[in-house]
Each structure stands twice: as C-alpha cells, then as structure tokens.
From TrEMBL:
Coiled-coil residue windows: none
Cofactor: adenosylcob(III)alamin
Organism phylogeny: Bacteria, Bacillati, Actinomycetota, Actinomycetes, Kitasatosporales
The Ribonucleotide reductase large subunit C-terminal domain, residue ranges: 155-690
Root EC class: oxidoreductase
Protein name: Vitamin B12-dependent ribonucleotide reductase
Organism: Yinghuangia aomiensis
Length: 946
C-alpha cells in the first residue's frame, strides 16, 4: 500500500479510569501455553492439481501435533512472513502468534488498557492459548500485516463513498485499487451519481452510474487482490428509486447472455480464461437497496416513483411489482442482484446522526457509515461444546470479552488505506466479532438446521455474543473512553441496545440446551443497558457473521460462518501424503446424542460412507433424517430454511450475515420473489440467492470439461485390447483361519495371501455340509478367490458386500464385529480388519473394538503414527495387525479417485453431477461455499474479502 494513515501517529487514548483486570480462562500461572502442547515438524508442499506444478514449498515447519494438514498448509503458505528460503522467513506457529499477540499486548500497555503488568501478561497468555488451540481467529489482514514492517492494516472490510463529481469518481477508482492491493474488499453505493435521464450543467445528458461501473470493473479485474491470483472483492449498491435502476438490474443478465454466445462460438469463457476479460461487470457483487415504501408498494401492487438525484423529484413512475419481478428474473438468471433492506438496516443503526448506512462490504455483513472499515474475528463454536453436549456459555462469554478487548486495541495502532477511512474508524471503532461451526454444533447436539430448536440455539448464542461484546465495550469506555462519535449519537445508540435486549426477552426458549444460554444473554443485556447508561460505549458496532473462509480452515472448522454442513462425507488430507474420505465426526456424536447404541451407530456411519447420505440407513429413524440435512446432496436444506436461520440470528447482530440462499435448478422466479419478500418480513438486512447452474462463466471441472468437448476423436486404425491376467498363489502361502458364528449359524473361513502382495483366496465352510447355504458359500468363495487373483481389489468387495442383509443375521461371537446383517456382511468386515490398511477401512467405517474404544476416549479412531526419518512416509501401528508372516500384505491404498481433491469434488463424485462452484485459480481444485463467497480447501484462497 502506498497511501496509508497511521494509527500510531495519533498518540495515546484518553484514560478516564484504571485499566482492566484480566481473568484467566484457559491458562495457569507459571506455565506458558506453548509448553503444554506437543510440537512436531512437517513439510508443506502444495501443488496445482491442473498441471502438477508446485505452488508452494516450505519444509520443517513447526506446529502442534493436533493441527490438521490443511490448517498447517494454509497458515504456512498464507500467513508466514519473510521470503521463503531465507532466515527471515517464519517457520513456526509460535513465531506467527508471537508476532501478533506481542504487538497487541504492547499497544494495550501503551494505551492504558491493563490494570497492571500482571494483567497484560495474562492477556498475552490467554490470547496465545486461544489462537494456539483454534478457539478463535482474527481475520486475515491481521495475520498478513501485524508486527511486520509493512502498514499494519487490520481491517478486512471497507465501505467507500462516491459523489456526483468526476473528481470523486476518480477518487473512487483510486481508493478501491489501494484496498484491493492490500488484500481486502470494498463496497459503495452509487446512488448519488445522477442518472442517464438527467442533464449535466453543460446541457448534455449524464452518463449514469452504470457507465462508471464499467471503468471500476476493469480496474478491479486488473488489480489482483493482495497481489494474489484471485480477482478483487467488491460490492456495488444502487437504491431502488434511482432512475437507472432497471439498467443496473440488467447489467449482469446481458453479460451472461454474451458469455453464453461466446462460449458456444468456441471462446474460452471460464473464470480466468483468456477471453473472459471481454465481458464486463464480472468483478463485483451487485445489490439493490430497497425501502419499506417500495416493498409495501410491491405488496399492494401500486406504482413507485423513481427520483432525480439532484432535485429529489419523481421523474418516472413504475409498477413496483414489475420492477420487483425484474430483480427476481435477473437473480434467477445470473444470481445478481442481491437485495438489501434499507429501512431495516437503518432501524438498527447506532450512529444515524453521523450519516445513514447506504452500503456494505462485498459479502454484505459489514454495514455502517461511508468511508469506514471493520476488523473481524470469529469464534469456533465447537470449542465450547462440553462432553455432555451442553454449551459452555460462561467460557464462551469470557472468550468474547478477551477477543473484543484485543480487537479494540488493534485500532490504536492500525493503518488504513485512506485518511477518511482512518479518521472514521478511529472515531467509531467498528468491530465485527462473529463465529464459525454453527452447522457442526447444531448437528452434534441433535438439532436440525431448519428447526425451531436449531434456530433457538443459534439465536441464543448470537445474543450472548453480542450482549457480552457490548458489555465489554461499555467497560472499556470506563477505562479508555467512549468512541468519539458517541456523544452525538448517544440517544440512538442506547435505543438500539434496548432493541437488542427486547428481542432477547421476546425470543422463544425451546429446550434445556438453549435456555441456559438465553439466561446468560439476558444478564448480559441487562448489564449493557446499565453500564452503557453510565459509561457510554467504546465501539459503534460489535458483531457481524462473516464467511470465515480461510480462517475457518485455519481453525479446522467443519462449517463456515452461519452455514450448515456442506455434506456428510468430507475429503481429508493425510500427514504422510495422500488423502481419504471420512464421515464427519459430528455425525457419530449426533447419533449418540439421539440415543443410538454403538452397533447401530457403526452401521449408519458405514452406510453414509458408501452412499453420502442417510436415506435408507439401517436403524436410523426417519424423524431423525432432518438432523443430517446439508447444504447440498440427497436431502438439501430448503431455501426458506436458510432464510429462517438468518432471521433467527439477525436481531442480535450489529451488522448483517454473509450468506447465500441456494435454490435448486428447477426453482422458479416466483420462488425468488417469495424469498426476497419473506426476507424483508422476517427482518433480515440483506439477502443473496443462487440457483444451481444459473451461471455459465464458471470454470469447468476436469470431468465436465471433458464432457463438453464436441470434437470427434481421430480414427484409430488398430484397437489393442488388454485383458487381466490371473496371478495364482504359490504352493505354500500364509493364511489365517477364523471360526465364526452369525445369528446362530456357525462356520469357518480360511484366508490365504500372496507372500508379498495381499489377499489371494478365501475358503468358506458352513457347519451343515450338503445344505444349500453351505453350497452357495463354497461357490461364492471360489468366485471371490478368482476375482482376487485377477486383480479385483479387496476394498471393492468390502464396499459392495458389507451391509448386505439376509438371514442368518444378528449377533456374532467376534468382539470386533458384534452385529452382522448377514454372513457375507460379517465375512468382509473380518477380511477388511485383517487385510486392509487402517485408512482404507476407516474410510469405509470399519473399525476394531480397540479403535472404537479409542474413539470414545480421544475422539479419534486413528492409531499411533510414527514418522520415518526420511519424513515422507507414514507408518501406522494397527490395533488389529495380521500375524508376523502376513505383514508384507497389501500396500497403502488410495481410497479416493485421483481426480478428487476437495470436499466439493467428492460431493460431485457421489452425486454424479458438477457442483456450481468456481475452481481455485491458485491450485485448480473446486472451491466450497463460505457465506456469500467461496473458499479453497487446498490453499485457503477466497473469492471474498475475509
């Protein structure tokens, strides 16, 4: 950034009282958080899956042993500072956390936040512990910039302004470019610019805001955000009464038609393709700002006036329903524009005397005055779920207090891209605390995402978070003073605090899980009203629900922001290289919460591993299906379920919620109209929709790209056909004989192996010779043996024959397989335990008794891992290993197809269709939704601003 305004130049804040006393939450006196975890060295090598090139490599980085491969890769490549390969390059998570935390502590001491040096040390240790253990994370700019020699920008979200002058318009281009260069995003409202239907002072017609959008779009497409390979993040808003509103609504629809025509003509129109730059308006999210007056006119079917920008006079009357219909038709066709509810937004505005809220950041969660910014932080909700499945409201509140303190301290030393933004941010001190992993929390506690119980718990947690944040803000006001704009806006600010408290009091309590959280929130809001009356508030706003894309991966969250789970089966990278698919850990926890015994839990998990959904899972009650509904897949959450969840959280947020309401491809324009209408009635502040397959300008997956090729292959003169060759076992071969009983039917199984190449034959003998069952088992074992010798992998048999149901079935005498659906089901579970690597059978949901006990004790089935000295090999000590002569059995197998590199691609493979998500321009894999943006599981890149 070449133009900044520095926080350090301002000096220390006013100190009307003594500093804060800081409580210990996680740490103990005399012990540093780093000394309480096991550290290990890892190698980070990240590749582009499209061409195999190495994007990033740094070996020997130091992280706690419980951090996932993904979290380590993303933090190392995204947040470590210094040139790779030099001594200045950070190589340990300790260095990264210390760089940030020690900067915060020093600033807190310099500006009078702490009551004593001991309090400052407790603050440092508690903040370190919470970051180290993934309890919360600051937004990305903090990790990029704090403690470095470059400008210490801490905000991810910016709102700009533009007036009806050429000077202001050119300033808009410049300021937006500086923000994009710094790795953040910006939004603004263009409604002050006069319409194309109005005259210039010289007598000619004005160009209108849509024409100036074209120049800003080209600029954004040129300046890659943060110097990375992704496009810039920006939001453009236009008021519904602007005379050019119809042109604004139609901008992206026309461009989508152009993309379609050019692609059909053979041009490369994928995002990032060579020819996509010829298409306009692709670098911004568009939103229409609607008023209550307009929405009432839509309901009544009356006319609505479009007003001149310079005089405010109505220059054209339009049919409100017709204009509303055009908005819905455009969103149906290309997902833009979104909608923002102006009167609702400003009804909750704490600072109306300083200006209306006219715009938002690119993801629509930050809403405040023009030329301002907001720094974000998000808490990992699963860290507050106790072993007894209750939510720890007390600890949650204490962490919120800690994080709000840290976020406010950061404004004291932060740098900003423009002088106006710096002045307003210091004057109003806008903060955006939020959370991630809500979807995982609801599932783990047995709540459907689209349920009254799920919404009650989400509302209670959100209310407690914001109430606690404002309470801490009032406490800070007593120590270092209220925000500069508070005196002018005192009445309005206290009115909004009362609105939050009233909404909390009126909220419905549903069960024993959410009720204690509501009670804690009620106490917090009482304190807010009391302390605010006495002290005022340090911050004009406190909370938002951001996408938590990259930082969600950093915290190993299963779900981002307020979103439900993407799918029940996920893609997981392994420490020693390779990957596997796993059923979400929250599924098992939810099944236990719902009262299912261990045997049924295992059978359900195995079914999910194979099918990717719960429909038809053995023993699972149909009334429990909804608990496992996800954003995509067999039982996708209904669109209004997303809207209702937003409405449950919205009354307890300072800002709004970054979230897209997904609709199926067959959704109608009327469906979108209803979502926009209900979003207004339910009190949400902003909404965006996305109908499956509505956009054509998305990168194609490798599979889909192959399917779209229309060229016929060149003639082949000679066809060479390859057939498998049978590999017979030697005369002498190692084997295991097992006696078994399934539902009272007894039998024996002998499994023989190649000396160095895995299982080769199976013999099955039932107790009653000459019976039909015994004969069929003989024939079946011969068929399986021949298949194994022709190269059919054992895991293929296991995946096909486990869960097959027929009599005899029931209890067995095998401690590792207590229940079997049939003899065939038992046989292949036993063969998997004896002959498949842990990763392969774990992905299929097959575990030994010892591994199941380990999961109950530690939350993980995985056995101990020993790393070889040459570092790239992972050796596993299997709980149920074969006899000594069997050790050189099957090699380590890859469970997932080679072309699957993310959870979205895994979902594509399961559903047999292409998911509507862009490819990451850095590493080439399918991204996954994160609020109204997308995040790459492979490298952490996002399409948004956080």
């Amino acid at each position: 950034m070449t133009e900044t305004t520095s926080g350090s130049a301002r000096g220390t804040s006013r100190k009307p009282g003594k500093g804060l006393r800081i409580e210990r939450v996680y740490t103990t006196p005399g012990s540093h958080p780093y000394d309480e975890v096991v550290w290990e060295r890892r190698d980070v090598v990240m590749t582009n899956w499209r061409d195999g090139s190495i994007n990033f490599e740094q070996r020997g980085v130091e992280f706690p042993d419980f951090w996932s491969v993904n979290a380590v890769n993303i933090v190392t490549s995204k947040y470590f500072r210094g040139a790779v390969g030099t001594e200045q390059r950070e190589s340990s998570l300790k260095q990264l956390i210390d760089r940030v935390v020690k900067t915060y502590r020093k600033a807190g001491e310099d500006h009078g936040y702490f009551g004593s040096p001991a309090d400052a040390e407790i603050f440092e240790h508690e903040l370190t512990y919470a970051l180290l253990h993934q309890v919360f994370s600051f937004n990305s700019p903090v990790w990029f910039n704090v403690g470095t020699a470059q400008p210490q920008q801490v905000s991810a979200c910016f709102i700009l302004s533009v007036d009806d002058t050429m000077e202001s318009i050119l300033d808009w281009y410049k300021e937006e470019g500086l923000i994009f260069k710094g790795g953040s995003g910006a939004g603004l409202n263009l409604s002050r610019i006069r319409s194309s239907k109005e005259l210039l002072s010289s007598g000619g017609n004005a160009s209108g805001p849509v024409s100036f959008m074209r120049g800003a779009d080209a600029s954004a497409g040129t300046i890659k955000s943060g110097g990375a390979t992704r496009r810039a993040a920006k939001m453009v808003v236009l008021d519904v009464d602007h005379p050019d509103i119809e042109d604004f609504i139609a901008t992206k629809v026309k461009e989508e038609e152009k993309i379609r025509a050019l692609r059909d003509a053979g041009f490369d129109m994928d995002l990032g393709g060579d020819d996509i730059t010829s298409v306009q308006y692709q670098n911004a999210n568009n939103s229409v700002r609607v008023s209550d007056e307009f929405m009432n006119a839509v309901e009544s079917g009356s006319e609505f006036g479009l007003r001149a920008r310079m005089t405010g006079d109505v220059i054209e009357n339009v049919d409100a329903r017709g204009l509303f219909r055009k908005m819905a038709e455009a969103a149906w066709a290309c997902a833009d524009p979104g909608i923002q509810y102006d009167d609702t937004i400003n009804h909750w505005h704490t600072c109306p005397e300083s200006g209306r809220i006219t715009a938002s950041n690119p993801c629509s969660e930050y809403l405040h005055i023009d030329n301002s910014s907001c720094n974000l932080a998000s808490l990992n909700l699963m860290k507050f779920l106790r072993d007894d499945d209750t939510f720890d409201a007390v600890k949650f509140a204490k962490v919120v207090e800690l994080v709000i303190l840290a976020m406010d301290i950061s404004i004291c030393f932060a740098d900003f891209p423009t002088q106006k933004i710096g002045e307003n941010t210091r004057a109003f001190r806008q903060l955006g605390i939020g959370y991630a992993n809500l979807g995982a929390l609801l599932m783990a506690t047995g709540h459907a995402y689209d349920s009254d119980g799920g919404r009650a718990l989400a509302g209670a947690i959100t209310s407690l978070m914001t109430g606690t944040a404002y309470r801490r803000s009032a406490e800070l006001a007593a120590v270092v003073g209220a925000y500069d704009g508070y005196a002018r806006n005192e009445t309005a600010h206290k009115r909004v605090m009362q609105q939050h408290a009233d909404a909390n009091a009126e909220a419905t309590r549903m069960d024993d899980l959410d009720t204690p959280v509501w009670e804690a929130a009620t106490k917090a809001w009482k304190d807010v009203l009391k302390l605010g009356e006495k002290n005022g508030f340090r911050n004009a706003q406190a909370s938002v629900l951001a996408p938590t894309g990259t930082i969600g991966l950093m915290m190993d969250c299963d779900t981002t922001g307020v979103e439900p789970d993407l799918a029940l089966v996920k893609f997981k990278k392994l420490v020693g290289g390779g990957s596997m698919q796993i059923v979400n850990n929250t599924v098992t926890r939810a099944l236990h919460k719902l009262g299912y015994p261990q045997e049924q839990v295992e059978a359900i998990v195995e079914f999910i591993a194979e099918h990717g959904h719960v429909v038809g899972a053995p023993s699972l009650k149909t009334e429990h299906y909804e608990v496992f509904d996800c954003a995509m897949g067999e039982r996708a959450i209904a669109p209004m379920g997303h809207v209702r969840m937003m409405a449950a959280a919205q009354p307890f947020l300072s800002g709004a919620i970054s979230k897209t309401v997904n609709l199926p491809e067959n959704a109608s324009v009327e469906d979108i109209e209803q979502i926009y209408l209900q979003g207004w009635k339910l009190g949400t502040k902003a909404l965006a929709v996305y109908r499956d397959n509505c956009k054509v300008g998305q990168p194609l997956s490798a599979k889909k790209a192959e399917e779209t090729k229309t060229e016929k292959p060149a003639a082949v003169e000679k066809v060479v056909e390859y057939r498998p060759v049978r590999k017979r076992l030697p005369k002498s071969r190692p084997g295991i004989s097992t006696s078994f009983s399934v539902g009272g039917a007894e039998g024996y199984m002998t499994a023989n192996s190649y000396p160095d190449d895995g299982l080769g034959e199976v013999f099955l003998k039932m107790s009653k010779q000459g019976s039909t069952l015994a004969g069929m088992m003989d024939a079946f074992s011969i068929a399986v043996s021949v298949g194994l010798q022709y190269g059919v992998p054992l895991e293929t048999y296991v995946s096909k024959f486990t869960n097959m149901r027929f009599e005899p079935a029931g209890l067995t005498d095998d401690p590792d397989v207590r229940m079997a659906q049939s003899i065939v089901d038992y046989i292949f579970r036993r063969l998997a335990l004896d002959h498949l690597p842990f990763e392969t059978r774990s992905a299929l949901g097959i575990h030994s008794a010892e591994e199941r006990q380990r999961h109950l004790d530690t939350g993980s089935y995985e056995p101990a891992v020993v790393e070889a000295e040459d570092a790239d090999v992972e050796t596993e000590t299997l709980a149920q290993s074969a006899p000594v002569e069997q050790k050189p059995a099957a090699p380590k197998l890859t469970v997932l197809p080679a072309k699957v590199h993310s959870s979205t691609e895994l979902l594509e493979a399961q559903q047999g269709r292409s998911a509507d998500a862009p490819l990451c321009l850095s590493c080439g894999i399918k991204m996954r939704p994160a609020g109204s943006c997308y995040v790459c599981e492979g490298c952490g890149s996002t399409s948004g601003c956080s």
